[in-house]
Amino acid sequence: MAKKKLAMYWAASCGGCEIATLNIGMKILDVDANFEIVFWPCVADFKYEDVRGYPDGYIDLCLFNGAIRTSENEEIAHLLRQKSKVLVAFGSCSCEGGIPALANLTTKEEIFRSVYLENPSTDNPNGVVPQPVTEVPEGKVEIPEFYGMVKSLDQVVPVDYYIPGCPPEAHQIAAVLDLVMQDAPLPSPGSVIGAGVVSVCDECPLEKHEKVIAQFYRPHQKKPEPGVCLLEQGIICLGPVTRAGCGAKCPQAGMGCRGCYGPLDNVVDQGAKILSAIASVVDIGSPSEDEEEMAQRISAMMGTLADPAGTFYRFSMAHSLLQRARVDGSGDGEGGKA
After folding, report:
1. Which residue among 127, 132, 145, 282 is the one 20 to 30 A from 73 at the CA level?
2. Residues 123 and 153 in one domain
3. Whether residue 333 has pLDDT greater than 50
């Protein structure tokens, strides 16, 4: 029996999803027995031309991790979509844009200025910044174009399934591999595989009471009380609006959920939803108090919430209603390429 064809690709991401694949333990032997690796640049010397030479639909399963940051990422996304029967958005960056999409809060020009012109460790007296095409004595040098907007994979090509997480848990990876290895009936297109349908709070064992928040704390500012809901203690936790499946590992270790499993099915905007949830439990004082004093106290309390955009949209900026910050009152006129 011929082996299934497996591909993995690493776009704009940290590479943790590639490493997470090894967390399936002895299951890796089943992968070796049932799959032929036909594209995995992280571990073997594959070339893009190899993939271009494959017939359309040649790859049975492609796990695509990382967001779309450059023209190269976009080109290979289209190529792998064409060559793959099943294309999976693998990990938070591919599913929701992830941490790379926080760059959508600024501009390409600001990023280049910070990295290449104003970085104290960069020696660049001529102010050179990357250009897609550069003429040199030896000929023309071309590098990928750096887009002004980071996108998730499904904002560029159709995606069959999603495996969220930063990185995905081993059981999720094993679940999608088993589906293909066993020729099992596949879920409906667009399904999230291996994760839950309830919130992280629903699988979190920390004790929960009626919430009234008077102040927010960053993780280094407060040692959480063991066994008690972190959000009740003023430590931001996106558990109420984040899909379960991770086992609530971060809250149990004293670190609030950062939302890497993405929003629940009925949540349109993960950041807006947690903001709404927090607003409903803020300690606004007694209705008999002076409204101006109440407003000042609420403003001061909300001032203890550091970096709301980076906190509420840490993994979901590309898929949010915002998608990117507006610059000088205007949007990003060229979509992903401005």
Report:
1. 127
2. no
3. no
The neighbour count for residue 261, using CB atoms within 10 Å, is 31
Of 136, 160, 192, the one marking the end of a domain is 192
263 with 131, same domain?
no
Q: Is residue 120 located within the same domain as residue 88?
A: no
Count of the separate structural domains present in the chain: 3
Instruction: Give me the domain span that covers residue 273.
Output: 200-312
Q: How far apart are CA 208 and CA 199, in angstroms?
A: 14
What is the residue-averaged pLDDT of the chain?
A: 90
Which pLDDT tens digit goes with each residue over 166-193?
Answer: 999 998 898 888 888 888 888 899 999 8
The residue among 162, 254, 242, 168 whose CA lies nearest residue 203 is: 242
Count CB atoms within 10 A of the CB of residue 243. 24
Q: What is the residue type of 93? A: C
Residues 166 and 92 sit within 8 Å (Cβ to Cβ): yes
- Which is nearest to 48 in space by CA: 59, 40, 36? 40
What are the helix (H) ranges across the chain?
A: 16-20, 27-34, 48-52, 71-83, 92-96, 108-112, 170-181, 200-203, 249-252, 270-279, 291-302, 308-312
Q: Do the strands 68-70 and 146-151 form a parallel or antiparallel pair, or are they unpaired?
A: antiparallel
- pLDDT of 330 over the 50 cut: no
Calpha distance 162→172 (Å, rounded) = 10
Q: Quickly list DSSP for 249-291.
A: HHHHTT-----TT-B-TT-S-HHHHHHHHHHTTB----TTS-H
